[in-house]
Amino acid sequence: MLARINRSYVPAYWDDFFNDSFFNSFEKRASNSGSPAVNVVEEEKAFTIDVAVPGIPRDEIRIDLEEDLLTIASEERKSGDEKNRTFMRREFSYNTFKRSFRIPETVDLENIRARHDAGILTIELPKKEEVVEKAPRQIEIK
Q: CB neighbours (10 Å) of residue 114?
């Protein structure tokens, strides 16, 4: 929680800008965007895409590769008992989402792998052998 700003040092109009409700409304807008959080990492031999998909089973996630476009998607799901329930507060939502990534030419498209564990979908995109930098070596002088 952020402390309120001391009004003796900062004009009152800044008080509302930096208070908790400002950040809470920003977080709410960001979390309702419908897209899961994603980390993309480049390592020496591969790229890795981690997608936060808590509560979404692997069989409800689809990964498509068309030419150089990788698309991750899931359809909205609602259980039948949700209609009969009155929520006092609802923060869980399983919305439809679709994220697409342009895959660089350096990726070996035939060896892309995906796994789903503890709410994280991990997609490994290995680099082609000829692209992986080989460690420098010293040439012996004879």
A: 16
Distance (Å, whole) CA 71 – CA 68:
10
C-alpha to C-alpha distance for 88 and 5, rounded to whole angstroms: 32
pTM: 0.65
> Which among 114, 98, 104, 105 is positioned nearest to 50, based on CA atoms?
114
Residue 18: the pLDDT is: 47
CA-based nearest residue to 61, from 116, 111, 1: 116
Find the distance separating the first CA and the last CA of the chain, reported in whole Å: 68
CA-CA distance, 57 to 32, in Å (whole number)? 20
pLDDT digits 0-9 by tens, 83-94: 678 888 877 666
